[in-house]
């Protein structure tokens, strides 16, 4: 595509939402997060094949998530200064190496090294992917971010299905199939990267000027921004720790408390994650209509009653309760990313990396803390204590109003 043609047809900020690119980058997000899900899907298998304890499983989740979280804000800051479309396929290549490592790791420490490659690939992808979304969003930023996040959530939701249909039959070596996910992502990026590069060449200055320009209303003071970001990070902490408890250990809870098999214990986890996909999509749409703050308050505080109820219901009630819990809890995640971007105009990559990176990092820290607690106090008591975390979401009422309000 020539520069003159791209200038005529590609500026999302002028011509509206570019859905073809949004769905393409969302599909890559799906594949990226599916590769991350391979790690958690293998937890029950690693427990058997390598004789891992709950604490070691927590360290695996911690390594994956901290690799992403530490690097994402830094990569985001660099991409704000100098975007690099070629980093997208490089990130996928790193994840491909990680998939091979997961399949053939002979020990716990080699397993951690493979996980580092997967985490690094994710850290590179997310900030650049968010910038692609920013270019393609037009004026529908909540919807665009939801389309992007739905891909990631759906990829995460594949973890229980991979456990049931791939890793229980094939064992640890089945992780090598994850290389096909990386290859598919690179193929899709062959369509996205040239478009992204054309946007940078033709409209980079325009987008940067628009994103960095003073908003129509009086901007927040530095003090208000610092307070809002701090509070936002606390909310991300609460949601991420609780989500880590569900994704990493709830299947063990189902086995111990209800006597389910490994396969049967994956079903509630899949319901939770699939409901989160729906919640993420609708949450972004509703935030464009009702505001970011309202959706975040509804999301994490509204999920608290269901979180408190979940450890105490009979098996038959687990399924509807965990569906509502996943739907409500995840309805605010993409909204929190947009809210952070609006707090820090002109710093799309850093804001996205900060929120999504911190979500991964806090989830990883939560996994190691909860895993250690489960080893010492038992999985049943640990999951009951974990259920109180969403109550922290009530603090979201203190957030300042959106700029869009």
TrEMBL record:
Domain Major facilitator superfamily (MFS) profile: 21-405
Main localization of the protein described in the UniProt heading: membrane
MF GO annotations: transmembrane transporter activity
Compartments where found: Cell membrane
Keyword Transmembrane helix applies: yes
Residues passing through the membrane, by range: 12-31, 51-71, 83-102, 108-126, 147-168, 174-193, 224-244, 264-283, 317-339, 351-371, 377-399
InterPro entries in UniProt: MFS, MFS_dom, MFS_trans_sf, Sugar_transporter_CS
Pfam family, one: MFS_1
Membrane topology: Multi-pass membrane protein
A GO-annotated cellular component: plasma membrane
Superkingdom assignment: Bacteria
CDD domains according to UniProt: MFS_FsR
UniProt keyword annotations, A-Z: Membrane, Transmembrane, Transmembrane helix, Transport
PANTHER family found in the cross-reference section: FOSMIDOMYCIN RESISTANCE PROTEIN
UniProt name for this protein: MFS transporter, FSR family, fosmidomycin resistance protein
